[in-house]
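Duplicate of #3305? Posting structure anyway:
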Protein backbone atom coordinates (compact mmCIF):
# COMPACT_ATOMS: atom_id res chain seq x y z
CA UNK A 1 0.00 0.00 0.00
CA UNK A 2 1.33 3.30 -1.02
CA UNK A 3 1.03 6.28 1.32
CA UNK A 4 0.37 9.54 -0.42
CA UNK A 5 2.71 12.28 0.60
CA UNK A 6 1.08 15.55 1.47
CA UNK A 7 3.07 18.68 1.26
CA UNK A 8 2.49 21.02 4.15
CA UNK A 9 2.33 24.70 3.41
CA UNK A 10 2.13 27.37 6.05
CA UNK A 11 -0.47 30.04 5.43
CA UNK A 12 0.28 33.49 6.80
CA UNK A 13 -2.00 36.48 6.79
CA UNK A 14 -0.88 39.69 5.16
CA UNK A 15 -0.23 42.19 7.98
CA UNK A 16 0.18 45.21 5.69
CA UNK A 17 -3.46 46.41 5.89
CA UNK A 18 -3.46 46.13 9.70
CA UNK A 19 -0.21 48.12 9.99
CA UNK A 20 -1.54 50.71 7.54
CA UNK A 21 -4.74 51.15 9.56
CA UNK A 22 -2.74 51.46 12.79
CA UNK A 23 -0.65 54.30 11.35
CA UNK A 24 -3.75 56.03 10.03
CA UNK A 25 -5.38 55.79 13.46
CA UNK A 26 -2.28 57.24 15.14
CA UNK A 27 -2.19 60.11 12.64
CA UNK A 28 -5.90 60.80 13.18
CA UNK A 29 -5.53 60.90 16.96
CA UNK A 30 -2.53 63.22 16.73
CA UNK A 31 -4.65 65.70 14.78
CA UNK A 32 -7.27 65.66 17.54
CA UNK A 33 -4.82 66.23 20.39
CA UNK A 34 -5.00 69.70 21.92
CA UNK A 35 -1.46 71.07 22.01
CA UNK A 36 -1.89 73.72 24.71
CA UNK A 37 1.80 73.62 25.47
CA UNK A 38 2.32 75.65 22.29
CA UNK A 39 0.66 78.58 24.04
CA UNK A 40 3.11 78.54 26.94
CA UNK A 41 6.50 80.24 27.01
CA UNK A 42 9.02 78.46 29.24
CA UNK A 43 10.66 81.74 30.32
CA UNK A 44 7.48 82.82 32.11
CA UNK A 45 7.64 81.48 35.67
CA UNK A 46 4.20 81.87 37.21
CA UNK A 47 3.79 83.20 40.75
CA UNK A 48 2.61 80.80 43.43
CA UNK A 49 -0.75 81.36 45.07
CA UNK A 50 -2.73 79.60 47.75
CA UNK A 51 -5.91 80.67 45.98
CA UNK A 52 -4.95 79.33 42.55
CA UNK A 53 -7.37 76.67 41.40
CA UNK A 54 -7.80 74.98 38.04
CA UNK A 55 -10.67 76.54 36.10
CA UNK A 56 -14.00 74.82 36.53
CA UNK A 57 -16.22 73.94 33.62
CA UNK A 58 -15.36 73.96 29.95
CA UNK A 59 -12.30 75.84 28.76
CA UNK A 60 -12.87 79.21 27.14
CA UNK A 61 -13.62 78.93 23.44
CA UNK A 62 -12.19 82.27 22.33
CA UNK A 63 -8.90 82.41 24.20
CA UNK A 64 -6.25 85.05 23.67
CA UNK A 65 -3.07 84.34 25.61
CA UNK A 66 -0.84 87.27 26.49
CA UNK A 67 2.37 86.52 28.40
CA UNK A 68 4.79 88.84 30.13
CA UNK A 69 8.38 88.07 31.05
CA UNK A 70 10.25 89.28 34.13
CA UNK A 71 11.10 92.61 32.43
CA UNK A 72 7.49 93.29 31.50
CA UNK A 73 7.99 92.53 27.80
CA UNK A 74 4.78 91.37 26.17
CA UNK A 75 4.97 87.93 24.54
CA UNK A 76 2.29 86.99 22.03
CA UNK A 77 2.94 83.64 20.41
CA UNK A 78 6.58 83.76 19.32
CA UNK A 79 6.65 87.57 19.05
CA UNK A 80 7.82 90.15 21.56
CA UNK A 81 5.47 93.13 21.32
CA UNK A 82 5.68 96.79 22.17
CA UNK A 83 2.66 98.55 23.67
CA UNK A 84 1.84 100.05 20.23
CA UNK A 85 2.05 96.64 18.59
CA UNK A 86 -0.26 95.22 21.30
CA UNK A 87 -2.92 97.69 20.16
CA UNK A 88 -2.59 96.36 16.60
CA UNK A 89 -2.70 92.71 17.70
CA UNK A 90 -5.84 93.30 19.78
CA UNK A 91 -7.47 95.13 16.85
CA UNK A 92 -6.70 92.08 14.66
CA UNK A 93 -8.11 89.71 17.27
CA UNK A 94 -11.28 91.82 17.51
CA UNK A 95 -11.60 91.72 13.70
CA UNK A 96 -11.21 87.93 13.67
CA UNK A 97 -13.87 87.60 16.36
CA UNK A 98 -16.14 89.86 14.34
CA UNK A 99 -15.77 87.60 11.28
CA UNK A 100 -17.10 84.75 13.46
CA UNK A 101 -20.05 86.87 14.63
CA UNK A 102 -18.49 87.32 18.05
CA UNK A 103 -17.64 90.48 19.97
CA UNK A 104 -14.44 91.19 21.91
CA UNK A 105 -16.53 90.73 25.07
CA UNK A 106 -16.99 87.06 24.08
CA UNK A 107 -13.24 86.40 24.22
CA UNK A 108 -11.23 85.56 27.32
CA UNK A 109 -7.84 87.20 27.73
CA UNK A 110 -5.48 84.90 29.63
CA UNK A 111 -2.60 86.83 31.18
CA UNK A 112 0.45 84.78 32.15
CA UNK A 113 2.88 87.15 33.86
CA UNK A 114 6.27 86.18 35.28
CA UNK A 115 6.34 86.24 39.06
CA UNK A 116 8.92 89.08 39.00
CA UNK A 117 6.91 91.23 36.55
CA UNK A 118 5.67 94.48 38.07
CA UNK A 119 1.97 94.62 38.84
CA UNK A 120 1.64 98.02 37.17
CA UNK A 121 2.81 96.56 33.86
CA UNK A 122 0.19 93.80 34.06
CA UNK A 123 -2.47 96.41 34.88
CA UNK A 124 -1.38 98.46 31.85
CA UNK A 125 -1.88 95.46 29.55
CA UNK A 126 -5.33 94.80 31.05
CA UNK A 127 -6.23 98.50 30.63
CA UNK A 128 -5.29 98.37 26.93
CA UNK A 129 -7.41 95.24 26.49
CA UNK A 130 -10.35 96.98 28.19
CA UNK A 131 -9.97 99.97 25.85
CA UNK A 132 -10.38 97.48 22.97
CA UNK A 133 -13.67 96.26 24.57
CA UNK A 134 -12.35 92.97 25.96
CA UNK A 135 -14.08 92.20 29.26
CA UNK A 136 -13.11 88.72 30.48
CA UNK A 137 -9.69 88.20 32.03
CA UNK A 138 -7.94 85.26 33.66
CA UNK A 139 -4.69 85.73 35.55
CA UNK A 140 -2.64 82.54 35.69
CA UNK A 141 -0.77 81.46 38.81
CA UNK A 142 0.82 78.25 39.97
CA UNK A 143 -1.01 76.49 42.79
CA UNK A 144 1.12 76.29 45.92
CA UNK A 145 2.10 72.72 46.73
CA UNK A 146 0.69 71.28 49.96
CA UNK A 147 3.36 70.59 52.56
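Output from current build:
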Amino acid sequence: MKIASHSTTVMEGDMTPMIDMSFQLIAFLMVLVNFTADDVNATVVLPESELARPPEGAPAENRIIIQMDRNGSILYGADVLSIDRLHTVLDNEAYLLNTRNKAPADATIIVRAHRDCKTGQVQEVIKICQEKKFEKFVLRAKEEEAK
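Confirmed duplicate; merging threads. The radius of gyration is 27 Å. DSSP finds three helices and seven strands in the chain.
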